[in-house]
Design a protein that fits this description.
By secondary structure, this protein is mainly beta. It has a single domain (about 85-349), classed as 7 Propeller (Methylamine Dehydrogenase, Chain H), CATH 2.130.10.10. It is about 0% helix and about 55% strand. It has no helices and 29 strands. The chain has strands at about 1-5, 5-15, 20-25, 35-40, 50, 55-60, 70-75, 80-90, 95-100, 105-110, 115-120, 130-135, 150-155, 160-165, 170-180, 180-190, 195-200, 210-215, 220-225, 230-240, 250-255, 265-270, 275-280, 285-295, 300-305, 310-315, 320-325, 330-340, 345-349. Strands 1, 2, 3, 4 and 29 form a five-stranded antiparallel sheet that branches. Strands 5-6-7-8 form a four-stranded antiparallel sheet, with no helix packed on it. A four-stranded antiparallel sheet has the order 9-10-11-12, with no helix packed on it. It is globular and about 45 Å long.
Amino acid sequence: MERLNEVLFYVGTYNPEGEEAILLCSLSPSSGEMKILEGTKGIENPSFLAVNSTGSVLYAVSEKDEGEVYAFAIDPVTKALSPLGSRPTEGGAPCYVSISPKQDYIFVSNYSGGNANVFPVNEDGSLQVMSDQVKHVGSGIREDRQEAPHPHSVIPDGSGKHILVCDLGLDQILIYRLEEGKLSKHREINLPPGSGPRHLAVHPSGQWIYLANELNCTVTVFANDEQNGNLSILQHVSTLPEQYNAGSDDTASDIHVSPCGKFLYVSNRGQDSIALFHIEGSTGHLEAVDWQVTGGRTPRNFAIIGGKLLAANQNSDIITSFSIDIDSGRLIPTGNELKIKTPVCIQAV
């Protein structure tokens, strides 16, 4: 939402409960300049945020050993947050929250807990008691990162009938049917061993879904059969340049499709870049175009807001902004940065 020619956004951080852990910020769409407007205390490590379709409620996970998910009412004028309560996620390190298309459920994945949850939503946006939880079992080939299930994200499909859970530890996307707040296993999509599936991005057309694989720094392209709740692999591409010598610190992180549907962006930690791909309009296939350094360390998360791309550089405590060339999709540094301690999630108001 714009106010006085500014676009507003929230930032989640790894900050303790007694500090301002969710920041309300503004962005100038013309210059890319950003400012902190105010902060919200009372939640520890809000590492992932989601705002409902009416812009009236923000949901935030509290990533800690005994995880919680919080709801906040958003003031319609100031966009300040007021707590609506929290619920335990019954799993450690919740790292993702998403909202059903009808706004009647939220979904949470617990990274160390190895499970994913469903919470019904009241009319005011507050949360009811958890209606279901699915527990994953198994492991992958990487003993250091895949010793157990690690659900890293959970999203509904466009119909709201199926829930997709990316499990980094199992090298799988697990698809569940959602009926009256209950989940039932529908199918498993297997990825190459050691991939580490992390986050998904859905093309605006709904035809394709793109997966960022954290551990092997790749993107997997899927044809999306929403009616039958199925994904078919079309392509695997690296998120790093051919000539780049990847090390143990190199991991893919966040992924987004541009609103126009022509470009895909993926953040690389280690190389500390945003990879740009052109999306072929008839097939959904990807062609690598460019890699833009983010001007900071560890771009865990980024967002496309107000015609700009904002990169949350977790380990250098800054958010950097970039203009987006509308024809090529290339990123152009604005030269602006915003100092925020451990920024790890950016969410438009």
